Structures are given as structure tokens and as C-alpha cells.
Amino acid sequence: MCSEASVPLIMSSPLPQTDSHVELTLLAGGSFTATANFLHAGAAATPFTMFNWAFHISHPSGRQIVWDVGNTSNPDDYTPWVRQHMFPLGPFAPPEPIEQQIKRRTGVPPEGVDTVIFSHAHWDHCRPIRALFPRATGYFGPGTAEFCGAGHFSATGEELADVPWDGNFFHPEHRTESWEALRGPWKRFGPFERAMDFLGDGTMWVIQAPGHMGGNLACAVRIEGGEWVLLASDCCHSRGLLEGKYDIATWCNPDGSQGALHVDIPAAKDTMAKLRVLRGMGVHLALAHDVSWVEEGTDPVLMGLLDQDLKEWVEEGLKTGRLP
Ligand SMILES: [Zn+2]
Questions:
Q1: In angstroms, what is the span from residue 56 Cα to ligand 1's centroid?
Q2: Is 230 helix (H, G, I), strand (E, B) or coil?
């Protein structure tokens, strides 16, 4: 008889009912070069193109929201730590700056964007927005600032080389960015216990999704036709991990500590289990770094978000290296 003790029981509730929807636009958020051994336990150090998706969400009320801002190849957009440790990986800007993609595809100019929600504070999702979207307020998940501390500025404003977090957001005196932590109220969304009905009409739920780093978020949006898409960002880094084909990679840091892409692996696994529950309920999962659905082409809802430029961008990147 098979033991069920290792299978966590996940409570879920039906998805909220609403007749409204948002317009969801998929955006190329740049890319960088990663190696498979940082994602999948036991994998070789095979290089591949780590794509990076971002999104624009437009609501009938006129609200214009950006979900993550992706990469640029401009060193000035990043902290000294990112420049030193991450720039050897690229990062490669998208073929068209993200604000221009939004303008071209939706007609919304940069100053029309009122909100930027960061799924989390890592460099490939988050960078200063004051010049990019001058009227926008940034939002992070609860606990982000506590996790990141003051960021890469010292008390005197001098740049610290060993802190990845951007003091333009998190330093009490030297911050340049206008942002807030999301405050809820938090309600259940399917299997997730804490989600915020961000626009008040049930079309967009910003979800606390623990595991990757402090304050990590996902976002469920209801699009035209009534389908739900989950912008799952870094809750999970590949389809192989989501489907249990691989385990989460860990490694030994130079200081002897254990490294992993998630700060809390049990919590990340619990979040991934909840993603699987949502997928079982018919929700379409769009992870920030996954292009397997483009290669397979079998999900008509996600494929409906692609245009020719995005398809070509993915094809080009896959030529440079694909996740084994
Ligand atoms: Zn990421």
C-alpha cells in the first residue's frame, strides 16, 4: 500500500467569481546566461539562456500596472554587487526597452503607468523606476524591506560592494524610489492563504508566495474569456522543477553555508505544490524564466500572449543555449 504521509494535503477553495477582466500584455524582460546546475540538483554546468518575462496589466478603470521590469544591459541600473557578480552573465537587455514595448503594444506611455509591482527584490526583476515610469508607485510584498535591510548604501551614502539589495529602494535616507509594502487585506485565493484583491473587483490577486526570498509574490489575473493566468515569477524556475522531474539545486558557498535559489526550500516546495493545485484548476502558469510553453506551443492562452517579435526573441535566445 502506498504511504500518503509524504504528500502534503493542500486545502483549496474555488477561484473567485467575477465578470470583469484585465488586458494582459507579455513583455520581453531581457535575458542572461545561467547554468543548469544552479536550478536542477545533479545537473551539469551546461550554459543556457535564462529568459526573463515581465507583464503589463491594464484595467477598465484606467489603472496601468507593470509586473516586474526585467533586465537592462546598463550597469548604472544596478548595484556594485550586481555589476561584479551578475554582469559576467550578461545581462542582456530586451530587443526593445520595456517602456517602449508597453507604448507600442498598448498605447500607454511611460507616464501613464501608475503602479509597478515587484514580485521580489532580485536584480532581474527590480531596479529603480523613477526615471522609467515617473508617475508610478512601486509595491513590494510584506517583509521585503525587513529581509533586504538598508541595501547597498552605507549610512553616509557610500556604495557597499557586498550587498545585493538596492538602497535606492531600501535605505531610510538615501532612497530615491517611491514605494510601499502591500498591506492587504489578505484573503484566500485557491490554495494560497494570503492574496490581495488588488483592484477591488476580483480581476487581479497579488499573492504572498513564500520560499524564494522575503516578500516573494505571485499574481493571478483574469483575462478576456474568463481564463486565469498566474504570473508566478520566481516561485519556481523551470517546468522540470514544477513537475518534480528535478529537485531544487543546492551548493556549498565559499563560507561553508548552503546556497540555493530559494532562501526557504520547504516553503518554496509548498508554494510549488500550490502552483500545481492551481494548474489542476485550469490556471495557466507563466513563470518568469520558463519558455517551455513557447517551445511546446500547446497552451493556447499563453500562446495568445505572444507576438511575432517575442517568438523571434525566444527562438534567437534558444540558439545560444537551451535548458537541458
Ligand atoms: Zn529571477
A1: 17
A2: strand
CA distance 92 to 194: 34
What domains can be seen in the chain, in order of their start residue? 23-308 (3.60.15.10)
Q: Quote the ligand 1 centre to 299 CA distance (angstroms).
A: 23
Query: Which amino acid belongs to residue 120?
Result: H
Question: If you measure from the C-alpha of residue 122 to the centroid of ligand 1, how many angstroms do you get, rounded to a whole number?
Answer: 7
pLDDT band at 9 (very low <50, low <70, confident <90, very high): confident
CA of 121 to the centre of ligand 1 (A): 9
Please compute, for residue 70, the number of CA atoms within 13 A of its CA located in the half-sphere on the CB side: 30
pTM (2 decimals)?
0.95
Element (H, E) at 306: none
Cα 4 to ligand 1 centre (Å): 33
| 50 within 8 A of 38, measured Cβ to Cβ | no
pLDDT higher than threshold 50 for residue 3? no
Continuous segment of H or E residues that includes residue 84: helix 80-85
CA of 10 to the centre of ligand 1 (A): 26
> What is the whole-number distance in angstroms between the Cα of residue 114 and the centre of ligand 1?
23
Grid cell locating 230 = 498566474
Length of the chain: 324
Question: Measured in angstroms, how far is the CA atom of residue 123 from the centroid of ligand 1?
Answer: 8
CA 234–ligand 1 middle distance (angstroms) = 5
pLDDT per residue over 196-248, tens digit each?
Answer: 999 999 999 999 999 999 999 999 999 999 999 999 999 999 999 999 999 99
Determine the distance separating the centroid of ligand 1 and the alpha carbon of 8, expressed in angstroms: 26
Chain segment 118-158, per-residue pLDDT in tens: 999 999 999 999 999 999 999 999 999 999 999 999 999 99
